[in-house]
Design brief:
Helix content is about 55%, strand content about 10%. It has about 250 residues and is mainly α. It has 2 domains: about 5-155, no CATH class; about 165-250, no CATH class. A two-stranded antiparallel ribbon has the order 1-2. A two-stranded antiparallel sheet has the order 3-4. Strand 1 (about 5-10) and strand 2 (about 15-20) form a beta hairpin. The chain is elongated.
């Protein structure tokens, strides 16, 4: 079965959006870079533990083996958790591991997909993982299937600063009572509930998938009524959704 080019994610709020999947070739290049990084780390370890060879060659070999295994096993786990689904190779090629439903990655998912890397790597050059990726509709290797994750391609985009989102009390829509009246008239309770649930559950979504979710919601609400430019300028999609929900419920 030929893999799809996108993965369609449907949120609990009923919003469906598509994210471009990372193909096997890009994933292979990212894997090659990560393996190079691991080899470089292994080289430093080898140089470091060589000083113990004069004291005890067996101890030096045991320590080198142990820490090399630790680096190989934990490299992707630590980086994918710290960098939200990315490693050095994935960052270089703009790839990211995400939950297949668009939620935040759990530590258990990262651990499982990386422990199964040993199986996907058999017998060499990630042959098992490559075969699974080629025939999987979502381009998933075995580790992704078990962990319920996918790898997406994330074009570079500027992420808005949302740190002050919930500290703002000013709602630009309140300066346009006619617009507020139209929104209350044209947005059904179910449609308002979509925005409310998206805001309440925003922290459950992966950062990279939360942006298109709120962009689609903002576009949906703007199609309900004509928004004057002064009500939109300098307002993020997430803030606009929050403003709409606030004026409807209050």
């Amino acid at each position: 079965m030929k893999p799809e080019n996108t993965v369609r994610i449907k949120t609990p709020e009923g919003i469906t959006f598509a994210m471009p999947l990372a193909g096997p070739l890009l994933r292979f290049f990212a894997w090659a870079v990560d393996n190079l990084a691991i080899l470089v780390a292994g080289s430093f370890l080898s140089s470091f533990f060589s000083i113990f060879k004069t004291l005890s060659p067996d101890l030096a070999s045991a320590l080198l083996l142990f820490f090399s295994f630790l680096v190989y096993t934990c490299y992707s786990m630590i980086l994918e958790w710290y960098w939200q689904g990315q490693t050095v190779g994935k960052r270089l090629f703009n790839l990211r591991v995400v939950d297949s439903k668009g939620l935040r990655l759990h530590p258990s998912q990262i651990i499982v997909r990386n422990l199964l890397r040993a199986v996907d790597g058999l017998p060499a050059l990630f042959l098992v993982g490559g075969i699974f990726s080629f025939f999987s509709p979502l381009c998933q290797r075995l580790g992704d299937m078990v962990a319920n994750t996918v790898v997406i391609h994330t074009p570079k985009r500027q992420t808005p600063d949302l740190t002050k989102l919930y500290g703002q009390k000013f709602n630009s829509l309140r300066e346009h009572p006619n617009l507020v009246a139209r929104l209350r008239q044209r947005i059904s309770p179910q449609e308002a509930e979509l925005g409310l649930q998206a805001i309440l559950r925003r922290d459950e979504f992966d950062d990279n998938l939360r942006l298109p979710l709120f962009e689609q919601l903002a576009e949906f609400y703007q199609n309900k009524a004509a928004f004057p430019d002064e009500a939109k300028i300098g307002t993020t999609s997430e803030q606009l959704v929050k403003n709409v929900v606030e004026v409807i419920y209050n």
